[in-house]
Design a protein that fits this description.
Elements: H1 15-18, E1 37-47, H2 49-52, E2 66-73, E3 80-83, E4 94-103, E5 110-117, E6 125-133, E7 140-147, E8 153-165
Antiparallel strand pairs: 1-4, 1-8, 2-3, 2-5, 5-6, 7-8
Length: 166
């Protein structure tokens, strides 16, 4: 959430959490609410792993098998993760997949993006992540940088994505 304000450490609560209609009214995230908007995310492709990782980092004898997990972290009704197909032996995966996320409380929703390398014999390997406040997303095609598990930005790794509110 702090990426929304340049990392200064303060994010104002949404108005509905600050102004109640009655003095005893409290926001309950478990109460079913109507869908306010639907976020449509298109994951086109990824690139940059070839430059930021050694060529044997993921697989010793073949290029990596990448897949992306795209989802929403927020109130229970909005929380959901979806997965692209796994593309075998490709340093520049080209998924071209569309995902839709109906959102009841978009003000509290975060778009979660993770990339993993599929490994049949062991645990899948981490390839990058990003978390973006849905309230800060702008419609259009964007190059989304990915970060390590420690939160360090990779120099070259990015995903080409489109964001739309429908």
């Amino acid at each position: 959430m702090f990426r929304a304000n340049g990392g200064c450490g303060y994010v104002k609560k949404p108005d509905f959490l600050l102004k109640a209609d009655s003095p005893n009214e409290v926001f309950d995230p478990k109460v079913p609410l109507p869908v306010k908007t639907t976020l449509k995310v298109t994951v086109y492709m990824g690139e940059g792993w070839y430059f930021d990782f050694s060529h044997t980092h993921f697989d010793a004898y073949s290029p990596p098998d990448f897949y992306a997990r795209i989802g929403i972290a927020g109130v229970d009704a909005d929380t959901l993760m979806k997965k692209t197909k796994t593309l075998e032996d490709n340093w520049i995966p080209n998924w071209n997949e569309v995902f839709e996320f109906p959102l009841t409380v978009p003000e509290l929703a975060l778009l979660r993006i993770e990339v993993h390398e599929y490994d049949m014999s062991e645990k899948d390997e981490f390839g990058g992540q990003m978390c973006l406040p849905v309230s800060e997303l702008r419609e259009g095609i964007r190059a989304v940088p990915l970060y390590s598990r420690k939160g360090e930005k990779y120099q070259s790794v990015k995903l080409l994505m489109r964001f739309e509110f429908v």
